[in-house]
Amino acid sequence: MIKRFDDFINEVSGTELVGKEMGSGFGTTELGNNTIGSDDTSVLYSDLDGNFYTMDEYNQLYQDYLKSGGGPLNGFNKENLEKMIVFLQEKQ
After folding, report:
1. Cα(84)–Cα(92) distance, rounded to whole angstroms?
2. CA-CA distance, 83 to 9, in Å (whole number)?
3. pTM, whole model, 2 decimals?
4. How many helices (H) and strands (E) does the chain have?
5. Which band of pLDDT confidence, cut at 50, 70 and 90, is reported for residue 35?
6. What are the two backbone dihedrals, phi and then psi, of residue 76, each rounded to the nearest 5 degrees?
7. Is the pLDDT of residue 87 over 60?
8. Mapping DSSP to helix (H, G, I), strand (E, B) and coil, where does residue 44 land?
9. CA atoms within a 13 Å half-sphere pointing along the CA-CB vector of 24
């Protein structure tokens, strides 16, 4: 028994147990599209000034935007970020 188990260990590299089909007892496992989207991060990139903005920087910019007379915006997204940047650049 031990001799056959040693033969099995030497023959199996480990890669055979990974993948879409792991055998009849496991069924199939689908590998979905795991691409990271804009909803998966709390950092935005602005094409206008070439900077990345974290949530904290966005909130600070939003406060400056409101203090300068900007109207309320809803949500942490690229469109709102660029509205604030354009508005604040026009105010300077």
Report:
1. 13
2. 62
3. 0.58
4. 3, 2
5. confident
6. -95, 95
7. yes
8. strand
9. 0
